[in-house]
Fold this protein.
Amino acid sequence: MAEDPLSLEEPVAGLSSDDITPNVYEGGFKTWECSVDLAEYLLRHVEENPSSVSKDINFTELGAGSALSTLAFFQYLLSRTSNPQPNSPKISLTVSDYNVSVLTLSTIPNLLLTWCAHRTLLPRQGSGDLEVSPELCKEFIADLESRTIEVCVVSGSWGARLAELIPTFPPNTSVPPPTLILASETIYSPDTLASFTDTLIGIMRAAEKVGRTVVGLVAAKKMYFGVGGGVDEFSKALQERGGEAVVVWESDGPGVGRAILEVKATCFGKDNDEWMQNV
């Protein structure tokens, strides 16, 4: 697991009633509303376009927290075949969060639980304890290896250092695979919006330098009242940095509007429409 040294002071308050404590705890123990939108959107795409996961892919979730989108994608990967083949596509899953404690107490355990549910290893009554033994962990890792699924965990705050820690070329891959970057509820304030945008663009540019097709999907509320972030502010920040985003999904119910934006790679020298159609 890669770590940014600035994030190593872990808050016990991470499990408190506070949603966010800036620069201490960034809300990773909570499953935010827009992460549900993003997970559902992603599942619809892969179910309607199964060929999108029939080849190597590099999948990254920034600000993962409970990692709902990653879990949905992981569950789909597990369910698509009961007998992994040696020539299965190579899948690289990277999850990133500000707090190490979130990754170790929420993100990774959720991946393990998803795998256990697929293997019907959870208690039959729907509740109870799961004994995480060394043998279970070894079996988990061995099964992922047989499915050619690699999991990378990265902690740290938004910025150039975090972008450098995100893998840009999975090991044992001869041809640069397409890259999908997901994030939800990461643009809620001007400060986080600017640093997140810099990080996203940095990762996309790094991916393109090694010849990848790359696309970003960012789910957010249209406006975060009282803090200043939102979809319009994010689009403006992208434009100021030479980027572009289009809305690919919007909520139609009451309450604060929500949306999913596709970050265009045309501004970085390559069109990503092919990824959404064929990868």
